[in-house]
Amino acid sequence: MSTAIQVNHVSKRYRRGQIGYGTLQADLQSHWAALRGREDPNRRIGAKDGSFLALDDVSLTVPAGETLGIIGRNGAGKSTLLKLLSRITAPTEGTIDLWGRVSALLEVGTGFNLQMTGRENVYLNGAILGMTKREITDKLDSIIEFSEIGDFIDTPVKRYSSGMKVKLGFSVAAHLTCEIMMMDEVLAVGDAAFREKSQAKLREAARDQGRTVLYVSHNLDSVKALCDRCIVLDKGQLVFDGVPDAAVAYYLGQGS
Questions:
Q1: What separation in angstroms does the CA of 98 have from each of 35, 62, 84, 155, 212?
Q2: Less crowded by CB within 10 Å, the N or C end of the chain?
Q3: pLDDT tens sequence across 212-249
Q4: pLDDT in tens, 36-70
Q5: Sheet containing 51-63: order of strands
Q6: Which CATH entry fits the domain spanning 63-90+100-253: 3.40.50.300, 3.30.479.30, 2.60.40.10, 3.30.70.670?
Q7: CA distance 33 to 37
């Protein structure tokens, strides 16, 4: 079985009181300042020195076509891991290799230009993934139908409710051509019927289309239903890797 994602001894360190949001630009600014012996431009004035590891020496291999669940308490490093994998920010140490195009939905409105319409954003996201206009057009009707946006597809996204943004964002991620999908708690916003439909779509994407899916959720039942395998993160470290039932049992037992 081929490999879709390879994470080798990856750590991500943040400074306490940092202004930036962990973007690649901010990371490069901080790194360049350190090389020149100057003050970090992303540190708050008057903030005490200090840092913390959001991820601590994590190694992970994900085969192509696998649905991997990622669970852990708030602050365990789940979202940080997905941001590193989707290239939103860079690791402090270690390497990440990806084989395939990545479609990530990490929070409500991720990847959307709020001034553009829903339709325009579909084409924008497809272009970012390297698809042609013809390829996107062929999938457009399916995207609109699945998203349940209907007549609002030509309305600027800034006027969408959070639920509408999630529905369109998920539909775009699920229908456009990519090999790796990453989902971070996005289905917690939609209504129950849409969540059920989306989970079925994720199963189809992995099992029928051979896509690799990374799924972060506090809904442990959905993790057990969707995932082939599950990892548990705790204080930035990978502390368990196994079948979903065992991973959930380990996670629930952490507080006992």
A1: 29, 10, 11, 35, 11
A2: C
A3: 999 998 889 989 988 999 999 999 999 999 999 999 99
A4: 777 667 665 554 556 788 999 999 999 999 999 99
A5: 51-63, 3-15, 93-98
A6: 3.40.50.300
A7: 6
